[in-house]
UniProtKB/TrEMBL annotation:
Pfam families named among the record's database cross-references: Glycos_transf_1
Cited InterPro entries: Glyco_trans_1
Top-tier EC class: transferase
Organism in which the protein naturally occurs: Leifsonia sp. NPDC080035
Classification of source organism: Bacteria, Bacillati, Actinomycetota, Actinomycetes, Micrococcales
Name of protein: Glycosyltransferase
Keyword Transferase set for record: yes
Ranges for domain Glycosyl transferase family: 123-268
PANTHER family, per the entry: GLYCOSYLTRANSFERASE, SPORE COAT PROTEIN SA
Length: 304
């Protein structure tokens, strides 16, 4: 901490809003001028989405109220990874919140993996934390009336034991033609490999500020069935998959329709997913988020 102070940083970048050690404590130090005159940039990483705020909501609302009372939001720049997240920030902190929008960095390849032909069995995958916000229970229940054999591989940390038990109960009650395998956590470096060989990613999420797993799925030519609560709706509707309402009926209908496609049509959906990925990946790269903040500071100084 002393070493950081001695360097007199120009910008303090906070990766997360509620983290006690790496966000809250350093900002309290800023409040008492420990860092000197420095610019603050904070990336909430999806923490202000309605679904995220609903978990431990009382504690989070209390901290937000305290943050506002201490006027820590004054003079702060927010880093949003999408227009969706920028909207979440404005909803909490007002329309005059200073926001720079910069998509998250990715180390994914430029071109999508060539898809393998699908088989008679529909191979689907879910990859994410096993909490209600991610919606695995919706996908599982929607599989009950699918008219073809399905194999669903579930990857993700079992953070909520009661919720995991609920999902496993739903999976056990599914017809014999629907096979669900729970694999547990997967190392982030191996998540793309876990998605390979699957034709459809199921993601009934309550909201994502970015949704890196969607990019990973498209990069292996795996079509994506997701809610409309992510920044990926346009990419999915242009060929990468399907963007749905989060209602149970919408997911039941969409999965039934997909299962009724011929193998040739399912192959085509994988090809379109890879093409949608290539189009997304080819978009011009934005300047680094710190460069965007610097430009904002210069623009504000010039307007005074």
């Amino acid at each position: 901490m002393r070493a950081l102070k001695a360097r007199r940083p120009e910008v303090l970048y906070f990766n997360g809003f509620f983290d006690p050690r790496f966000s809250i404590f350093p900002q309290l130090l800023w409040r008492v001028r420990f860092w000197g005159p420095t610019t603050r940039l904070l990336a909430p990483r999806g923490e202000f989405g309605e679904g995220a705020l609903s978990r431990r909501s009382a504690k989070k609302r209390a901290f937000i109220a305290l943050y506002r009372a201490l006027r820590l939001h004054r003079g702060l720049y927010w880093h949003a990874s999408s227009e969706v997240e920028a909207g979440d920030i404005r909803r909490l902190w007002g329309g005059d919140a200073r926001i720079v929008i910069r998509q998250n960095e990715t180390q994914l390849p430029v071109s999508a993996l060539e898809p393998e032909p699908v088989g008679e069995t529909l191979r689907a995958v879910f990859l994410g934390r096993l909490v209600e916000h991610k919606g695995l229970h919706i996908a599982l229940a929607a599989l009950a009336d699918v008219p073809v054999p399905v194999e669903l591989d579930v990857y993700g940390p079992e953070e909520d034991p009661a919720y995991v038990e609920r999902c496993k109960t739903i999976a056990t009650a599914l017809p014999d033609t629907i096979r669900v395998r729970f694999h547990g956590s997967v190392d982030p470096d191996h998540s793309r490999a876990a998605l390979e060989g699957h034709e459809l990613l199921l993601m009934p999420t309550a909201g994502e500020n970015f949704g890196h797993v969607i990019a990973e799925a498209l990069s292996v030519s795996c079509a994506v069935m997701c809610t409309t609560r992510t920044p990926w709706t346009e990419t999915l509707e242009s060929g990468g998959g399907w963007a749905l309402d989060r209602s149970q009926s919408a997911w039941e209908d969409a999965l039934r329709r997909y299962a009724e496609l011929s193998t040739g049509e399912r192959d085509a959906s994988r090809t379109r997913a890879g093409e949608a990925y290539a189009e997304w990946r080819a978009r011009p790269t934005q300047p680094h988020v710190l460069e965007l903040v610097r430009s904002e500071i210069i623009a504000e100084a010039g307007s005074r």
